[in-house]
Amino acid sequence: MPAHIEDYALLGNCRSAALVSRDGSIDWLCLPRFDAPAVFAALLGNEQNGRWRLAPSDTVEQVSRQYLGDTLVLETTWHTAGGRARVLDFMPLDEVNSVVRIVEGLAGETHFEMDLVMRFDYGRSVPWVEKLDPLTLSAVAGPDRLLLTSSVASHGLDHHTVARFRVCAGERQVFSLRHQPSHLPVQPDCDIDQALQHTLAHWQAFADRCPDLGPYSPRVRRSLLTLKAMTYAPTGGIVAAVTTSLPERLGGERNWDYRFCWLRDATMTLLAFMNLGYFDEAQAWREWLLRSVAGNPEQMQIMYGLAGERDLQEYTLPWLAGYEHSQPVRVGNAASAQVQLDIFGELADAMTQAIKGGLPRLPRSAAISRMILPYVERIWREPDEGIWEVRGGRQHFVHSKVMAWVAFDRAAGLADTTEESGEQARHYRQVADQIHRDVCANGLDASGQYFVQAYGSAEMDAGLLQIALTGFLPADDPRFLRTLAQIEQRLLNNGLLLRYDSENGGDGLSSGEGTFLVCSFWLADVYVLLGREAEAQQLYEKLSGLCNDVGLLAEQYDPSEQRMLGNFPQAFSHIGIINTALNLHQAQCPARDRARTG
């Protein structure tokens, strides 16, 4: 059985990512890209579906781990009766996709064992393994090849590659596993010491650009590093998570593939980068966006592949048992074909923030906006699947309408003062006002006291917090205050927010899921707006305290079982860590402009 979700650490090279458990097993790795078929898929099955475990064979008395400084080089220190040793795990930042594991003796003598189970196609294909020389193995299946180079001899055992060795103080053994197309000549391994130093320096330099946020700085830097690691460097696309099918309820069906670029998630990531002054990353994302959405606005999708691919067909992998028997295991995402009005507001807000932040205006950006806004003007009255991607039919979600208002509100604010643009700005303002009136007339409950999830509904939705966070209404508007009270009363679970009541939310799936972490960060942001800073601080500390020992968060959390749920690590959650920290820090420094969090 795989480890608990919170027991994993992240390795990354801005092309792919690996998850390493606390017991030294890499249980998830997709090569050569985030969305490629996994070569280690034990996370969603068992060890026969692929893993790479490197740990002491002696009885372990204590194990601890940390990242070296502000980097993605993971240090795991093992204490046994006979000695102490550490393992350094990292993915070099070069054109070759590889994972390096260095075992170093620190004291006494420690015996180690390696168990490498190489599988292709999400654990289905057993490769042909052969020795190229005494210390190099080749594993081939179809178009893919893995090459293991090690400083100790290994041998095959029941389709596993195993080795036993020892390290004394001052000794080290090195293992490097790299991927390449099988039809190409075998590529040489990298210089391990040089790769380690380059990787350390690269990540530390990235983190050092983060401004000082006082006591929030360590958590913000770790979240920034995590978001950067989830960026596909060749294109600038940002994945929502590096995994697929980690369940929102253990044993349930709410298992989705998040290894794609959601416009919403990526836009919020852009805002986090912008708010912290990371303009190179913001510009790379904007260029990815403009390439991806170019064309007919009616064909614009809510998510794309890493390079802007549009075909993300969803299918299942029946040979994988699923994480803790949560089935089905899905690849691809059928939600890519959904209509979600809110993304247009997110994009408009992001473009506005980009220009205000100093990124140059681009002719293509303005041209795409001129195409998209008339389309949104035509469709905003129609129902959609909403921010939570329901599969139970379209509704008139209030959050979606609010974000459609954001699209026209921001467009009106950006328009130039020329006569032509002034006329356009007036039109955008008229549309925004029309949407505003419609939401205020139809988005309230039957008594007209507070907003609800959808027109005619009695349900609550944490997305309604965006009414204040986007400026649709002032935070102290009585209708919003009553909405906030309803959210707190009906959606709080042990101090954390559900996104909606899955028992009655009409999402077309079996009920039950964890609290949705980014929603709780939004609640803290609302508290800041209302001047309830002590409550915001308390909630932020509770949320950030849920991070695992290396500072990572999944999408959801189950307070009763005290376990993380959902895909991991999750961009949404780490965006929350950053933006709420910014808001708290700025609230404590009144001279600063408050960053928009939504």
Automatic annotation (TrEMBL):
Residue ranges occupied by any Trehalase-like N-terminal domain in the UniProt entry: 3-138
GH15-like domain ranges (all copies): 220-581
Alphabetical keyword list: Hydrolase
A GO MF term: hydrolase activity
Signal peptide residues on this chain, from the entry's feature table: none
Record-given protein name: Glycoside hydrolase family 15 protein
Source organism: Pseudomonas promysalinigenes
Lineage: Bacteria, Pseudomonadati, Pseudomonadota, Gammaproteobacteria, Pseudomonadales
